[in-house]
Design goal:
single chain, alpha/beta, Rossmann fold, 2 domains, 7-stranded parallel β-sheet, 6-stranded parallel β-sheet, 40% helix
Length: 369
């Protein structure tokens, strides 16, 4: 039997939300469809902090190499390197290639392979076009329009699709939400954690989009005393000190706020929390919010663009706050008073099987880029 070859290309598998979704997709396709041969190709050196499934083939093609003159290869040359590797080690003509992240798409828009799909995991308008002067934003827009005119675009939420249409104009798009296996997620929560206090949890790498400063200020303003706040995520040189300054100004509250940094397995922490809080300015979908809902936890999120409103559903919009400290603090107080009202129902469209089925259909319907 000739198996359908499905390849996901991603910058690395260090351990972020995009990488987790790529692993889930690849694992699910391999488990649900025996007629598939599933591969992940990374294009940058990395140190993985993730558990890699044994039924998925992992390849690394180092595109950071330089030529004999010490100069970096062009995007076209890097695409040829990736194409050559795929032909030699995987398949002469894969049935489906998924390009995750624009750093991959900027290379693979030059590929000679067909049936290329670019998976958009973020809100492009907020992520790409809110920084720099007008000329810089215009040049960025023209570059992305050039990149994404090759192949069709898969958006991980309806909000992401709206941002693509708004920022880049008419593109060939479809929405396939990131999905997860509720059963596997519950299994991943089994390890014990060493923490005795009741706590709220936030999971997300420190950076401008996640707004840890808003989170900490809102928690302090909420006046919640009997639930600590635990923050899990890779720290950085800008936003970590900003949070530290807030904590220094509020030493009493600081004793209840715990910055743990990166944790390899955050799921036991989510499962044992009193609830999860998301304080972002924007998301792609918000996988950690989806994971908390799958675990039946109370959730509060800012009503930011792309994801949270789709995840909680129209019957639970009271779980959403405005993008202000005051509104987030008030919504936290309401959850603290009545946690059960802040548990949205799980929606089948976010299941792993639903996601895998849609990508499998792409592999059976070849499209030219």
């Amino acid at each position: 039997m000739n198996k359908k070859v499905i390849i996901s290309i991603v910058p690395h598998l260090a351990g972020g939300g995009v990488e987790r979704s790529v692993i889930e997709l690849s694992k699910g396709l391999s488990q649900q469809y025996p007629d598939t041969d599933v591969h992940i190709v990374t294009i940058k050196p990395y140190k993985s902090q993730m558990t890699i499934p044994t039924n998925v083939h992992i390849h690394n093609v180092d595109t950071q190499l330089r030529n004999t003159l010490g100069m970096r290869f062009s995007s076209q040359a890097k695409a040829r390197i990736i194409d050559s590797y795929i032909k030699q080690h995987i398949a002469s003509e894969p049935d489906l290639i998924l390009c995750h992240q624009d750093t991959v798409s900027k290379l693979m828009c030059h590929t000679e392979f067909a049936n290329i799909h670019h998976v958009i995991h973020t809100n492009l308008c907020r992520n790409k076009f809110t920084h720099g002067n007008r000329l810089a934003r215009w040049l960025r827009k023209k570059q992305l329009q050039s990149v994404y005119r090759h192949g069709s675009l898969v958006c991980v939420s309806e909000g992401v699709e709206r941002s693509v249409h708004s920022c880049l104009g008419n593109q060939r798009t479809r929405v396939i939400p990131n999905g997860l296996s509720v059963e596997d997620l519950h299994c991943a929560t089994q390890p014990k954690i060493d923490f005795d206090q009741p706590y709220l949890i936030h999971v997300g790498n420190f950076g401008p989009a996640k707004r840890h400063d808003r989170l900490v200020k809102a928690y302090i303003k909420s006046g919640i005393q009997n639930w600590d706040l635990v923050m899990i995520g890779q720290q950085d040189a800008v936003w970590s000190p900003a949070v530290e300054k807030i904590l220094e100004a509020h030493p009493e509250a600081a004793a209840r706020i715990h910055v743990l940094g990166f944790v390899r397995d955050p799921y036991p922490w989510i499962a044992r929390s009193e609830g999860l809080v998301l304080s972002s300015d924007y998301e792609g979908l918000g996988m950690v919010l989806l994971e908390a809902v799958a675990l039946g936890k109370p959730v509060v999120s800012t009503d930011c663009e792309s994801g949270p409103r789709e995840i909680v559903g129209e019957q639970h919009t009271h779980c959403l706050s405005a993008l202000t400290v005051d509104s987030l603090a008030e919504t936290l107080r309401q959850m603290h008073q009545n946690p059960a009202c802040f548990i949205p129902p799980w929606q089948a469209k976010f299941g792993l099987s639903a996601m895998c089925n849609q990508y499998y259909q792409l592999a059976t319907t070849r499209e030219c880029h």
